[in-house]
Amino acid sequence: MYYSFLGKNGNNNRYRVTLKLFIRCDAREEQIDAYADITFYSGNGNHITTLRADHDNTEQYTATDVDPCIVNPPYVCYQIGYYSTIIELTPSANGYVAAFQRCCRRTGLTNIFSDNTVGATYSVVIPGTPNGFDTNNGPRFSKEKGVVVCANNRFSYDYSAEDPDGDSLVYSFTTAYSGATQNNPKPVDSDPPPYSPVSYRTTFSADQPLGDKVSIDPHTGIISGIAPRSGLYIVTVTAKEYRDGVYIGENKKEFQFTVESCVKQVVASTQDTYKDCQSFTINFSNNSTPGKPYFWDFGDGDTLTTWSRDALPHTYRDTGTYIVKLAVDRNSSCGDSMLATVRVYPVLTPSFSVNGLCTTRPTEFINTSYNRYGVIEYFRWDFGDPAVTNDTSNNSNPTYHFTQPGDYPVKLLVQNSKGCEQSFFDTLTIYDKPPFTATNDTLLCYRNGLQFHAESPLPGTFEWAPLYNIVNPRTATPYATPAVDTTYEVTFTDNSGCVNSKKIFVDVRDTIYVRTTADSTICTGDPVELKAGADGEYAFTWTDLNTNQVVGTDSIITVTPARSATYHVRVSLGDCFSDDTVSFRAVDPPVAYAGLDTTVCYGERAFLNASGGAFYKWQPAGTLTSPNKPNTIAWPQDTTLYIVTVTDTLGCPKAVPDSVMVNVVPPVPAFAGNDTIIIKGQSLQLNASGGETYRWSPPDGLSRTDIHNPVTSYNRDITYHLQVYTSEGCLGEDDILVRFMSGPEIYVPNAFTPNGDGVNDVFRPLPVGITKLELFRIYNRWGEEIFRTNEYMKGWDGKMRGRPADAGTYVWIVQGTNTAGELMEKRGTVTLIR
User: Domain PKD, which positions (predicted)?
Assistant: First the structure.
């Protein structure tokens, strides 16, 4: 919204007020208002009138100069509806405010909170009569242009305004305002000022509506930088109007930026401006498309081609304003380039000091910035007060009244006539009472005095009261000698007149007390805790009276007496003190003994014998007869470590453990060999295993009875008994049956009873003098083979396909090779009896 002065009508001033509403190109006819109600208020907020502004015309703008090297160029289109009205106003020193409110903003806005309930306010201030500014023409934004803004890419947008009177304009980002509601989306009478700002989402603000990588040039109104992520952004710019350095007024334009996810084949990207003016050496950043050749023209006659995107330092030989060009892949049809302005006028260093940090009076800001070239012509202070929106100033030495204590981040932005710009940040701690520290409440011996201490980081004065036994009460370090309990109060007054105070209670003691624990018995070598209780926070000193050595200075300490000992404790408060003692009788702990390790054979018992105390407890108890007695019997199945815990009744209650290992020799795997059949008249060598010493019985037919492999030449069936001994003397036993039969021959029974009684359950041939069983097969009466094997002494268990076979007669055939190498074969039948 802007105004134009049309002249006088008598004493009244005539103005044309114009409202420009931006509308999407796809808006329906009914979404375009046929008129707009503009409400006028006096400068002090009184309602004047509401006028209907007619819809004059609508203009459409699209982005026409789309870069052909954008792979996916977006379509940008919007309309502007123009509404205007003429009003006559009586000249007034306070001026007037024109306002229009409408609801609601669209949802899905990226930088402000918008849920289809947030409206908008557009307004303009018509200045008053001072300096003749009531005949002024307000600035107006008229450079409407569709532009493609690609996310995370460099862009530039001309947001400048023009002023019919030729006044100078200063641009800055500012807040957008809410207004109107869903219940009354187009009020006839808009609300009076002030207006409520919208709420910005995290990482965005009124000063940074497009993020921290986008800025506006205060002189040209050009918005440039690196665009944020894709989305819809509300951007509001204020153009402040000055005439001969005197502020006239301002105009605001709110615009919706559409940031698209474009893909450019090549992008040149560095800062648009380098204007910190800190050195002749400038470090140029390069955020361009990687993997391309980069050509730099530094504007001073020096050029450089490089493939590196690292920061590039360049030193200028003289001051000046230089136009730097960065060209990326410049020999390609889709190469990209950009220009950057570099201002080399070192040094500009902003800084400030303050006077007064108390909430009772305004804080004075004193500009102490240093500038070597040109003059500082623009200041912007942001006092960091979140409670208000007008916590800014453009004065060089402003004042600001902080009404609440707290930490405030203050920012000073300065610009000089050479175009240099720098910011300085400092956090101010505002207080309602000046900070200071002083001596805490304290104890004092009646024989002594007390040196007080007070300190503040701020200049000021101290004063102490009451004036009772105190020396130098108007200093930070007075000396007091109270004879009775006294509360002193110290008052600090800083140089700005802010006052703070603190009370200090001095507890004067003529007697102090200490009491430690009762005498007791301890175990020799154990740590013991010494405790002392006193009636105040005194200094403690513990002394071992056996050695006269100080062993601690806390109220609770830990010592390890090597023998019986007495300890003395003294508590002191200056020249006042009190004493106590505690004694400990040291008793040696029991000497537990579980006995020597032992070894037993499997199944045997071990006798355990412990000593050293009065009470015993063995673990594990499951294989012991008497686990709570010193002497007990163990029957472990495996090697076991037995632990006995011993206590006594001599004064040391400590339980002391000891252990004994009972090694259990596993069962001896005595093996005399499998039962066998040999031909009468032949000898058989036995082969036993399982130990180290062997004993055979009876000795009949044996070559020896004390070796593991004697030879027998007996000709009658006999069972030999074997005893095997390990190196520990453990015994294992086994038997072997040797049968002597005529042969070579294959003996086959004629019946068997597979009933599971362990007798005659398996039908097998008995080969005598047969070195190899070639085959053994069984057939049922229909000639079906139901069993076969060639394993020695393996037989048929009477089952067919896993199920019991029927009782009856079955045919068998057996073949084997005898000791002479001849093949023997026998056939016959067997009866299965159930």
Answer: 278-344, 379-419
